[in-house]
Design goal:
This protein is 29% helix and 28% strand. By secondary structure, it is α+β, with helices and mostly antiparallel strands. It has a four-stranded antiparallel β-sheet with strand order 2-3-1-4. The chain is globular and about 40 Å long. This is Antibiotic biosynthesis monooxygenase.
Length: 108
């Protein structure tokens, strides 16, 4: 297995502000921890606004094939967590998959 990421998989989801802290904890335990074990790297982001909180997860993979082994389906297929419908304003229909061209500086 190569250890150089060539693919970034970007997932986005929004919650209501009053559910954001609970979703952040749930998402980390149920969604992010298993992802950390499989991906080359994982970054999580949160933006709070008066009307919603948006979560973004970027995972890095050595290939589309490796990412597909994790997702068990197509590269843009979403793995909804069991309680996502309870927390998220709407269930994401896809993820964004980008080729990683260059990386500079310390992003870790």
């Amino acid at each position: 297995m190569a250890d150089t990421p060539t693919i970034a998989r970007i997932w986005r989801g929004r919650t209501l502000p009053e559910k954001a802290d609970a979703y952040e904890a749930y998402n980390y335990e149920v969604g992010i921890k298993p992802l950390i074990e499989k991906a080359l790297g994982v970054q999580t982001f949160r933006e709070d606004t008066p009307t919603h909180s948006e979560f973004v997860t970027i995972s890095y993979w050595e290939s589309v094939e490796a990412m597909g082994r994790f997702t068990g389906g197509g590269p843009t297929e979403v793995h909804h967590l069991d309680r996502d419908a309870e927390f998220l304003v709407e269930l994401p229909k896809s993820v964004q998959v980008l080729r990683l061209l260059t990386s500079h500086g310390n992003t870790g």
